[in-house]
Structures are given as structure tokens and as C-alpha cells.
Amino acid sequence: MDTFQRIEDIYKENYWYLKKILITLTKDEFISEDIIQEVFSKLLKNPEQIKEINYLKSWLGKSAKNAYIDYYRKKSPTLLEDDEIISNLLISNADPESITQVNASLVNIFEKLHHLDKTILIAKEYYGFKYEEISTFVSLSPNAVKTRLFRVRKRIIKSEKGEFL
């Protein structure tokens, strides 16, 4: 049996299993079908991957869950899309009074942040380091750096909106 036939058989055997999982997650039949198609299209792009999979059903479930997460990340707005916050943070063409207010606001925000959070934020946003580079000098995994940065950005936005930091 060739690899593509095997993938087709896997698709037929596990379609309803995946659909049941994804309907529970998405509450939408069409999105569920799109995600299933995405999982199997990735498998078709790299058919040799099947030989490395020990527990097929578990792998399919995890792949479907990850594809679901990716789908909603792409659809959800990013943290800094709020134009008002962006215009408040971009001060290059502002008058001196606005610059002073923004600087005071930033100092206030930075005083409330943990030292590690400040380090990660400055390394990423000001110096442009990659997550892997930051992770080496703060002794955290790249995923932990991403998580901390996400939370810091979220706290800054809440602070800019006048909510408690």
C-alpha cells in the first residue's frame, strides 16, 4: 500500500473522531471541516511523517487541537491594534507636553513591572532580539519568554486604558 492510500484510509477511519472533537471546540461545522482539511493537507505535504507516528489517534487529536488554536490566533485581533493606544505610544511627532506625559506614563508603568518583565520587553521591543536570544540571557524557555511578553503587553494596554495594572 502506498503512502497516499494510507493517508486516505486514515482520513476515512478518523474523520468522525476528529469532527466530534472539533465540533465540541468550535461549535461550528464548517470551521471543524476546515481544520480537519488543514491537518490532512499538512500530512499530505509531508507523507513520510506517518512512519514516525506511534499513536495515530493521539497525534491526529493533538494536531487538530493545535490547528484549532492556530486558526483562532489568526482570526483574533492582535494586542496592539487599538489605534488610540498606538497613537498614544507613538510620540515622534507629538508636542513636548505630550512627550512628557507619555514619558511619565511609561515611567509609571515600568516602575510597576517586575525586573524580568522589563528586561524581556526592552530586549524584544527596543533592541529587536528574537525570543530564542532573549531566552538565553534570562534563563527561560522561548515559550516562557513569549508568554511573559504577551502578559506584559496586555498589562500595559490595560494600564493605558486606565484599568489597574
Automatic annotation (TrEMBL):
Domain RNA polymerase sigma-70 region, chain residue ranges per copy: 11-76
Gene3D superfamilies tied to this protein: 1.10.1740.10, Winged helix-like DNA-binding domain superfamily/Winged helix DNA-binding domain (1.10.10.10)
InterPro entries xrefs: RNA_pol_sigma-70-like (IPR039425), RNA_pol_sigma-70_dom (IPR014284), RNA_pol_sigma70_r2 (IPR007627), RNA_pol_sigma70_r4_t2 (IPR013249), RNA_pol_sigma_r2 (IPR013325), RNA_pol_sigma_r3/r4-like (IPR013324), WH-like_DNA-bd_sf (IPR036388)
RNA polymerase sigma factor 70 region 4 type domain: residues covered: 107-156
Entry's transmembrane regions: none
GO BP, sorted A to Z: DNA-templated transcription initiation
Keywords on record: DNA-binding, Sigma factor, Transcription, Transcription regulation
A single MF term (Gene Ontology): sigma factor activity
The keyword DNA-binding is annotated on this UniProt entry: yes
Domain of life according to the entry: Bacteria
Family: Belongs to the sigma-70 factor family. ECF subfamily.
Annotated protein name in UniProt: RNA polymerase sigma-70 factor, ECF subfamily
UniProt source species: Gracilibacillus orientalis
